[in-house]
Amino acid sequence: MESRSRSFYVLATFFALFLLFLYGPTITIAILSFQGPQGGLTFPMNGVSLYWFFDLFEEQAVGDIWGAFRRSFGLGLMVMVTTVVVSVAAGLAFRKKFPGAGILFYLAITSLVIPSILISLGVGLIFQQLGLKIHWATSGFGSQLTWTLPFGLLIMFAVFNRFDKSFEEAARDQGATAWQTIRFVILPIIAPSLLGVALFGFTLSYDEFARTLMTAGSYNTLPLEIFGMTTNVTTPVIYALGTLTTLFSFLIIGVFILTVFFMQKRRSRAGSDAGKGV
Known about the structure:
Elements: H1 2-32, H2 51-56, H3 65-93, H4 101-109, H5 116-129, H6 139-161, H7 166-173, H8 178-206, H9 210-213, H10 222-232, H11 237-277
C-alpha cells in the first residue's frame, strides 16, 4: 500500500513538472508583459503596470500588428470552413470501399510527416511557375490546408467508423432522400465532432508559421509578424502581444467547448422530452 502511494506521488510530481515545462514559457511572457514603462525584456521587472498593453493599441514604429491579426483571423476562418466541408465529404465517401482508397488515404496524410518548410517552399514554387501571385489568401491558404486537412480526415474517419448506420436506414424507411438523411440525421449526430474539426482547423491555421513563411507574400500573418518583431522590437510590447494572442486562443477554445456543452445538453433535454411523450 505504501509503495503504491509513493508511486502516486512520483507520477503526480512528474505530471506537475510536465505542466510547468509546457506552460512555463507562456507564464513567463505573461509576467514580463506587466513591466512598468521603463521595463525591459528580462527579469528583474522594473515596476508593474498595464502600459505595454495600452501601447499595443498605439501606432507602432514597425510592423502592422492588427493588420496581421485580421489576416490570420480571416485565414483561420477560411481554413476552418474548408477543412470541415472537405473532411465530412471525404468521411462520407470513404464509408464505401473503392479502388485506390487505401493509396488515396495515405497520400492525404503523408503531408503530416513532410517538413513544413518544404511544403511552404514547394507551394511557393508552384505558384511562381504558374505565374500566380503569392498571397496569404491563396498560396498561404493552400499550404495551410496541407496541415489541417489530414487532421480533419483522421477525425472524421474515426467518427464514421463508429457511426450506427441504423439511423440512416430508419430515415430512408420514412422516405427521406439522401440529402435529407445527411442534413437531418447524420450532421446533427456528428455535430460535436464537426466542432472539434473546426477547432483544429482554426487553431492550427491561426498559429502556423513554417507553412506560411514562403507563401504569405508581402503581407504577414500574425505568427510571421511576431517573428519579425523579435528582431527589431526591444520593449515588452512583444510580450503584451503574446499574452493577448494567448488569451484569444483560450477564448476560442472556450467558445467551442461551451458550444459542445450546450449542444449535448440540448440533445439530452430533447431525448428526455421525447421519452416523456412516449
